[in-house]
Amino acid sequence: MQWTSIVAIYFLIWVMTAFVLLPFGVRTHEEAGEPLIPGQADSAPANFRPGRLVLRATVIAALLTALYVANYVRGWVGIEAVDVTTWFD
Q1: Which residue, 16, 27, 35, 83, could crosslink 31 as a Cys pair with Cβ 3.0–4.6 Å?
Q2: Does residue 61 contact residue 14 with C-beta atoms inside 8 Å?
Q3: CA-closest candidate to residue 9, choices 69, 57, 56
């Protein structure tokens, strides 16, 4: 596998991981006990920390990419393991 493929796979996994992590650990102003700014949506986050999100997404994406590359090299799970046409024979 070429290193450019690994970088592309890492980027895709990173974006998906970041979107999955977005709702975790975020509280609204009502939950945090802070006053709303006039015109602000009730559901707006009060404690959004993009740095922490980036760090978590980076670590998780690195682990998942390493697992993917290891599976690619070692061949632990192949297409025959996920071939649903043979499950019902």
Answers
A1: 27
A2: yes
A3: 69
